Amino acid sequence: MGVTFDARKGFVIGENSVVNEFARMDTRGGIVLGRNVSVSSRATILTASHDPNSEHFAGYEQGVAVGDFAWIGLNAVIMPGVTIGEGAVVAAGAVVTRSVKPFDIVAGVPAKPVGRRNTDLRYSTRYQRLFK
Fold first, then answer.
1. In whole angstroms, how far apart are CA 84 and each of 34, 66, 68, 96, 127?
2. Torsion-angle region of residue 28: left (phi > 0), alpha (psi -120 to 50) or beta?
3. Which domains, from first to last, does the chain contain?
4. First and final CA of the chain: distance in angstroms?
5. C-beta contacts of 22-28 below 8 A and 24+ residues apart
6. Which of the residues 11, 71, 101, 127 has an alpha carbon 20 to 30 A from that of 65?
7. Is 50 assigned a catalytic role?
8. What is the pLDDT confidence band of residue 76, given thresholds at 50, 70 and 90?
9. Mind listing the pLDDT tens digit for each residue in 33-64?
10. Which of 4, 15, 50, 98 is catalytic?
């Protein structure tokens, strides 16, 4: 069990946020998670890739920011340079290639808006351990 980090730098996590088991955080380009963010199991946030048109397969890094109260679903993939807005929801299995507006719900491959979320969010994502 655990979370995989691709670098030992570039990761900021806000108060009461949680990254669940088997998630992958590619922190080479920097990841910032706001407050009360939930990153579900096996979700992946990528911050580095390659230019497919480069004759030398040149790499690049672009950070990812996730706003307060955002929820990233099981097996979702967030691509480099994306911002997930406050309160936004990324459905399970979605591949996010463009930034998501605050309180939008996105799903699919590539992810597209499918709904809106309540804007009056007051919860805390403090989880208790189920087993000890």
1. 10, 5, 9, 9, 22
2. alpha
3. 4-116 (2.160.10.10)
4. 14
5. 28/61
6. 127
7. yes
8. very high
9. 999 999 999 999 999 999 999 999 999 999 99
10. 50
